[in-house]
């Protein structure tokens, strides 16, 4: 459930007076999502999403996130376009929260992505990596190795209760990642959370990428590694080589990887699996049952992490197969 802050019709009408979107026809809260409050609006000029930014998003980061969407949409990437207010701003306030209006994208996210969806997401990711080259803003990745360590410090004392042996496993991951994490690969602004629930399709056609609220500056190949984990495993946790092949081929059809990026991919995929395992584990241990925030399963990513520890070469993901 993701309507943490409710709004009245009066508040919404007053908010919309700042925009050229015409009269409000209807609005309703959207249940999906877990970080912010989202509403679907219909006005005389079309459909929009209103997002109220909740506590886990730092208001100081909003110009970066909204500026990025604006930049990508104008470069032809299928992502929401922030609607500018009459005074030119894109960030307003409603019910005491910072808020923005963005265009509505048609489509739905794929609960079971196919090989074709994996290829399309690879192409779209590479397209975004090319399109950010002249984006002027930057934001450090708070969820890279040092950020993971803080999460681990919080979760470690109880990690063995969740999964016996996890403390020793993850301590060893940190030792290896600290020694081998690459820093000299091509980098720029990455999406950093390109999971299936953040990509819409109309049939086989990718119609939209949403949720840029983890976007930051980091290695492009790390973004691709996150997609390998998020898109190419089956419900039984088995890696699907055909999907991996398609994702990587789709990406490389738009932006070929360098030899160093290919070499680093297993380490990056291991780090990315650790990152999502840790945020999930941290929430699992700290968010009380019954809280509105949706908790995601850390066990899925404990499995991913164990898989990634065994990988020695990107050819095991299907690199160069198609
Ligand atoms: N531009 C858009 N067009 C259509 N639907 C959208 C758009 N933006 C958001 N949504 C809808 O709102 C839901 C939540 O959006 P989003 O993923 O950005 O929220 P969130 O709270 O940041 O969630 P999380 O970070 O957990 O994925 C999406 O699943 C989708 O249904
Ligand atoms: N994509 C993240 C949730 C944050 O958007 C996860 O699956 O853990």
Description:
The chain is of the alpha+beta class and 322 residues long. It has two domains: 9-104, Phosphorylase Kinase, domain 1; 109-317, Aminoglycoside 3'-phosphotransferase, Chain: A, domain 2 (Alpha-Beta Complex), CATH 3.90.1200. 43% of the residues lie in helices and 15% in strands. It is built from nine helices and ten strands. The strands form three sheets. Strands 1-2-3-5-4 form a five-stranded antiparallel beta sheet, covered by helices on one side. Strands 6-8-9 form a three-stranded antiparallel beta sheet, covered by helices on one side. A hairpin with a 2-residue loop joins strand 4 and strand 5 (97-103). It is globular, with a radius of gyration of 20 Å. L-homoserine binds at residues 193, 195, 276, 279-280, 296.
Note the total helix count.
Answer: 9
* Oligomer status: single chain
Order of helices and strands: HEEEHEEEHHHEEEEHHHH
- The N- and C-terminal alpha carbons lie at a distance of 40 Å
User: What percentage of residues falls in helices of 4 or more residues?
Assistant: 40-55%
Task: Return the structural class.
Answer: alpha+beta
Largest sheet: 5 strands, antiparallel
Provide the CATH architecture of the largest domain.
Answer: Alpha-Beta Complex
- What overall form do the CA principal axes indicate? globular
Widest sheet, order of strands: 1-2-3-5-4
Bound molecules: adenosine-5'-triphosphate, L-homoserine
Strand fraction band? 15-25%
Radius of gyration, in angstroms, nearest whole number: 20 Å
